[in-house]
Write a structure and sequence with these properties.
The protein is of the alpha/beta class. The protein has helices spanning about 5-10, 25-35, 95-105, 125-135, 140, 155-170, 195-200, 205-215, 255-260, 260-265, 290-315, and strands at about 45-55, 60-70, 75-80, 105-110, 145-155, 175-180, 245-250, 270-280. It has an eight-stranded mixed beta sheet with strand order 1-2-4-3-5-6-7-8, with helices on both faces. Belongs to the 'GDXG' lipolytic enzyme family.
Amino acid sequence: MPLDPQLEAMFANQPEWPPIRNIPVPVLRESVRSSSIQLPPPQVSLASVSDRTIPGPNGEIPVRIYTPEGKGPFPVTAYFHGGGFVVGDLDTQDMIARGLAAGAETIVVSVDYRLAPEHKFPAAFEDCWAATQWAAANAAELGGDPALIAVAGDSAGGVLASACALLARDAGAPRIAAQINWYGPGIHPIPEEGSALEFANGPVLRLEDAHYFWELHIKDESDYDDFRASPMKAESHKGLAPAFIAAAECDPIRDAVEAYGPVLEKAGVEVEVKRYPGMVHGFVSWLGFLPGAQEAMADACAFARKQFAAARQTA
């Protein structure tokens, strides 16, 4: 299927994004930030949005807490933004956190984890895991239910969410009710086949960009074998939380995203994998105006609500 007509029209009026390897990291971060904060937010109402810091393994971690309208206690979801582990912050994917909080009727703790190349693997994961533990331990204080914890993320954040779900299972706590992953690949490095070749030149994300982000993120190639970098490489996937995985059709890493689904299914994990026609990597960030993004958010929220309801019944 061709690129979504609305996206095609949008890209036609913009200069082509240059290969990120040629852009200094500070410039790249500011460019992504400035373009992201101009995007319209979803038209949702929330009870409150507040910023604070929480304890982390290497100092305080900034977080933003979104509380839905209605009567709690609510489920609590730790959310991790995308950006290749190199760019992104609490503002760049604020729209996704808002949509998730309202649509899934969950408190969302959005995490401003440490970024590469200043902080190499596994720094980002360590911050996200600390935030997941904090969200569970402090759920009641936030107006949440400590028995209803979820993890969610987009792109790099989806990898982090998948990894946190694995470690939560291994650690025995917190019990994760659902994991949501918008276009975060299950394996690294990205296999150079299928969608990686078909969409090697984008739009939006090039295969070379994905490789470069990981060059900045990892210390050496042995990190690729760590489940915190490649969730598919975990020794076992049995007993994991139900998973929602969203893939963009016109995305070089699409196949690496979707590949995690059959692995989970084979291990007996409830999983829903959905490919969104005509969409590109990062499309959920256009939640404020793009129907495909709105569909992907609605699907993820419906999945989360279903899992929260099931968890309440078994609690």
